[in-house]
Design brief:
The longest helix has 22 residues. The chain is mainly α and 184 residues long. 58% of the residues lie in helices and 5% in strands. It starts with 16 loop residues before the first strand and ends in a 7-residue tail after the last strand.
């Protein structure tokens, strides 16, 4: 297999522009680069979560990280040949399976409880940021919208919410619930 990256330091971005998959240069503040950055950030937080969560959840997290990388690549190219509908069904089924063992929600849940639970919530919120960045750039990524990549990001944040609750249950940690103002 040939090397994908031969140099890390290129100096080509030193003036505030970068290239993606083609010859075009983009300013580093461009919405497309904000999206790629948000996907990278979410992916990094998922990696951090994997360092503290139960071992049996790690294969799913690695698979999700790979899918986020796939979305980032498609964003860089501005096109995709991936049909995200089967992946949507897969993440929905995984979320449903995790949720099956959980008690119904009686109140809003706050991020926290233990480190793994908190990290799952950080991953959830980072995926939400990536989803917002995706929809901000959606008019320029119609092929990805039609393929279901934005919907996948939406389902993924649901997955991380349920994973946080599952992790709390598995670790014997009480969920932290919202205490609204004015409630005695």
């Amino acid at each position: 297999m040939r090397n994908r990256i031969s140099r890390v330091v290129t100096r080509t971005g030193d003036r505030g522009e970068t290239s993606l998959a083609g010859p075009d240069r983009f300013p580093k503040h461009h919405p497309r680069l904000a999206l790629i950055g948000a996907l990278d950030e979410a992916n990094s937080f998922i990696g951090l979560l994997a360092a503290s969560i139960a071992e049996h959840h790690k294969p799913a997290l690695t698979r999700i990280q790979s899918r986020l990388f796939d979305i980032g690549g498609a964003v860089a190219m501005g096109e995709t040949n991936v049909d995200w509908e089967p992946l949507l069904s897969e993440i929905e089924a995984e979320t449903k399976e995790l949720n099956r063992e959980l008690p119904p929600l009686r109140e809003f849940v706050l991020p926290g409880g233990d480190e793994a639970v908190a990290r799952a919530h950080v991953a959830r919120s980072a995926v939400r940021r990536a989803e917002r960045a995706f929809w901000a750039e959606a008019e320029n990524l119609s092929a990805l919208v039609e393929a279901g990549a934005g919907a996948y990001l939406n389902r993924l944040s649901d997955y991380f919410f349920v994973l946080a609750r599952t992790s709390a249950r598995e670790n014997g940690v009480a969920e932290v619930v919202w205490e609204p103002l004015g409630r005695d």
